[in-house]
Amino acid sequence: MRTSLLAFALASFALGCSSGKDGNGPAIEATQQAIQGGTSTGASYPFTVGISLQGGQSLCSGSLIAPNLVLTARHCVAQTADGNVDCTTAVVGSTFPTRSFGVTTNPNMFAGGAKYYSVAEVIEPSDSTFCGNDIALLRLTANIPASEATPAAPVVQHKSFNTSRYDTKVTAIGYGATSAANNGSGTRRIKRAINILCMDGSRTYCSSPQTSDFVKPSEMITDPGTCSGDSGSGAYDDAAFTGGTYWIHGVLSRGGASGSQCAEAVYTRTDAFADLIQQAGIAAAAAGGYPAPAWTETEPQEAGNTPFTGGPGTTGIDGGKKDAGGAADAGPGKTAGLGESCEGATNCASDAGECLDFGAGFVCATSCTEDATCGAGFHCEGNYCRSGDPEPETTTTTTTGCSTTTTPTNASDATPMVLVLGVALAGIVSRKRR
User: Fold this and answer.
1) 416: buried, middle or exposed (CB in 10 Å: 19+, 13-18, 0-12)?
2) List of domains in the chain
3) pTM
4) Could you read off the pLDDT of 380-390 as tens digits, one per residue?
């Protein structure tokens, strides 16, 4: 599948908020929005757990990866600034006391009699930078019995971009609400077949000097599916999920919203923190009195674990494909003009710029600052010359904390994230999903 990056960079990144809820279990904040278009899991997939935070004032999601070990987002367990996330400055503060957390496998966190497990230890990366390090582990005070939940497994022995082993789609499961208008958080829901849009090491890379203020090499971006309340939830390999194997590629860090709709999601990759996760798994097994999980063992490396290091228009180790599952590149020596179709190994003409993917296929494109610099029949979109006239101006409503504002935007600004340059980056409002 050839994936394309959507209007991620220009979406407003929403952190839902609302009043708490009384009940027999912990009072959980009913955060706005959640897995978009998902369905209830019922009693299935109890390895996706709900996490009560700060004595029940809010919630996050997580993944049970060993009988007494839960994988989640770091911002769920430590002090971070509310609101917008600027990856050039955002840092993580002090960790909340372990008594602040409760973990349940119940599909409804509000259910009477829902059992909550207490937390003995919080394990985090040493780097206090928020973006790229938004991952944490909770070691529980007691083992969750296999009769209640069989743990999933993090992708740590091989790289997530290794397409000989892993899919280019994920399954999302979390405990958030169904929409901004329906405060229904606390129920476990699932959505299948969500595209991975980009992942460093693959041919669809995310990070670059132009995008370093909102995405890091240790993160990946997926199509819409998750929303507020799903922070810490796992991105499960979709093909393996179909076969009953539950591999976790990452934990949900943050994501976008446009009005009541959730936009693309940023996950912190598990393979980027293999050592941290494997060491935590070994220590948790010793504390829990069970054999260390198989994923704590290092496996021999293979060609698919070697990262692709080229840029657009080059051929990598994946057999000449433009991206995971994509069509083969055209042969060398071909040329294409501005706006014309091109392939990964095709050389654009000297005045036609680079071979780039704008979502509808690879085309030759040059950089620009305004329409006049592109010439007749082209317009400047996302700092690149595109064929045709610009789309008419539309209105997009974005959510900022508890308030909404309406601002005019140009629909043609929906550019691939890896291509957003200069002034376009000023429109990014990135927020944590809790």
Assistant:
1) buried
2) 8-296 (2.40.10.10), 335-427 (no CATH)
3) 0.71
4) 876 678 777 66
